[in-house]
Design a protein that fits this description.
Oligomer: single chain
Number of helices: 5
Largest sheet: 4 strands, antiparallel
Strand content: 25-35%
Radius of gyration: 14 Å
Order of helices and strands: HHHHEEEEH
Mean pLDDT: 86
Distance between the termini: 26 Å
Strand order of the largest sheet: 1-2-3-4
Helix content: 25-40%
Length: about 140
Amino acid sequence: MRYLLVSFYMIISACAAYADEAFQTYSDFEQYVDKRIKNREFSTVISRLGGADEYTKQQLQMIQNQLRDVVPFYLTDGAIVKRIELENGFSQEMRAYWNKDNSYLFLYAFLQERNDGVIVLQFSMNTSPEPVLQMF
């Protein structure tokens, strides 16, 4: 199990791609990731945040299966753990998702709010908070 998590982290943290299309607002970004992560639609989130051209469909399916094995139940709660506002519309944040069965997933996002919307510049997912916290 530990190997699976390390392997998964290495795959997702290597993804430093820009989202293919901007979210119209920060609220749209927030609603999108909250709904899909709670529903365990991990590959959908990865694709939308910029991984669509970084991973093959087979790789995305493998990641989806790995994460669903590690997070076997729907995530019922979510919160922003840490958010840092930077200059010129840039920010970074850590989101946590969990359930009563002690399943956790952490999302890091480096964002820029511009006139044309919110761009995800980098993101990372992990079932452990430590690697995500180290991104700050």
